[in-house]
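Retro notes, structure queue

What went well: the backlog is down to a handful. What didn't: a couple of records were mislabeled last round, so from now on we paste the full input next to the output in the thread. Example, using Molybdopterin synthase catalytic subunit from Macaca mulatta:
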Amino acid sequence: MSSLEISSSCFNRETKLPLSPPLVEDSAFEPSRKDIDEVEEKSKDVINFTAEKLSVDEVSQLVISPLCGAVSLFVGTTRNNFEGKKVISLEYEAYLPMAKNEVKKICSDIRQKWPVKHIAVFHRLGLVPVSEASIIIAVSSAHRAASLEAVSYAIDTLKAKVPIWKKEIYEESSSWKGNKECFWVSNN
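Corresponding output:
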């Protein structure tokens, strides 16, 4: 077995550490029930449209898995300005039956493109004050590339296909905004 010698003023003597764990031949390893349960953990998609304040911690906890080494998040928040106007809040409306169906399709598309474990998409409806989250998307996967790419795809596709409308409320006025990405918005 290889070893690494460490000599430091913190130690009074040289310490040898193995570079690789010892091999155990002919061991009668039996996986525990917990190991089997983790392997059989079913993938889940959690979709929620709510008027309640969104919690990054709560949404990220929904996708954590012992099988995954990555959880990627997108958190969209209300900013305090738009084109020189002071934004007080945003207001969101959605056609819920179609919105939920479109988000389910996005989750299915993600599963076709990347090896991800769990997906959570939470979107706030109603008034969303400055600095609060309007949307949280969380994806877990074994490795970071899949979850990072899936989160980017999810927000881009959601903005393009899901029937959610946003009203920007300014100090003196308000304005309904269509997403530039939406296929049904004319870009004249």
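Agreed that this is the format going forward. Reviewer comment attached to the example: The radius of gyration is 24 Å.
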